[in-house]
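Problem 12. The chain below contains 98 residues. Write out its predicted structure in token notation.
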Amino acid sequence: MAKHYNISGNLTQEVLAVGSNTNISSVWITNTHASDAVTVDLYVEKQLSDKYYYTKTKSIAVSSYLQIENININTSSSGFGLYIKLNNADSEVSVILK
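Solution.
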């Protein structure tokens, strides 16, 4: 089942927590800001471990999207959490996970 999120601001936000027992194979990130491009970091992180980036400082133009397919994110209790960080305080994106 798809999960939908509206994300805004420039603080790192947890999209899926470790232990949420979710498997993800596709991610769509759409820039919903009215006039500015957005720069996105999307990564997984295990507690007390390193970050592993799917994309880092990827710019998405106004009304455009980034699609990441054929990935395998497992957020079991021994897995990773999924995190997103945007570049500006007024940045806005819509995220769909499948």
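Discussion. The two ends are 6 Å apart (CA to CA). Students who got a different answer should revisit the alignment rule from Section 12.3.
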